[in-house]
Amino acid sequence: MLRALMPLLFITSLSHAASNPPKFEFKSLSSAEALSPSAKSVRFSDLKGKVVIVDFWASWCAPCKEAIPHYNRLATKYKDKVVFLGINEDDDSKERDAFMKMQEISFAVFSDKEKQMAKDFQVAALPTLFVFDKNLKPVTMYRGFNDKKPQVLEKTIQELLGSQK
What we know:
Layout: H1 8-19, E1 23-25, E2 41-43, E3 51-57, H2 62-77, E4 82-88, H3 93-102, E5 108-111, H4 116-120, E6 128-132, E7 138-143, H5 149-163
């Protein structure tokens, strides 16, 4: 059983976002193949049936940069059952693009230049990562990053994959 408990307000706001999901628009195609080789955009509702991880990050955020290799590993390990979506919050697309050329990212990355997705998900700090079950119901969120988070996230993924048909 998942041990993570979330405040009612958080669950309500994410449930609203999941039931009225934004359309994620690709701004960088570097990892579009993570969803579909020809994908330019994807609707959150189209991801039903897979565990979905949504990571809000920026190239200027040191903990965000530290987290990406760990998320790459998990995205690759669970690629057929889990969809990782990176939501980039950089204001400067040149900085983002330069970072993405230097750092391989093995999951789909979307630009949130207008900060609408961050508002929809009530992101207060970076990095912030949200986990949704196969029915796109919010399960938990992680704010910040430390060396224990990848193991906690992987355990959550395994529990979700094991607990659902």
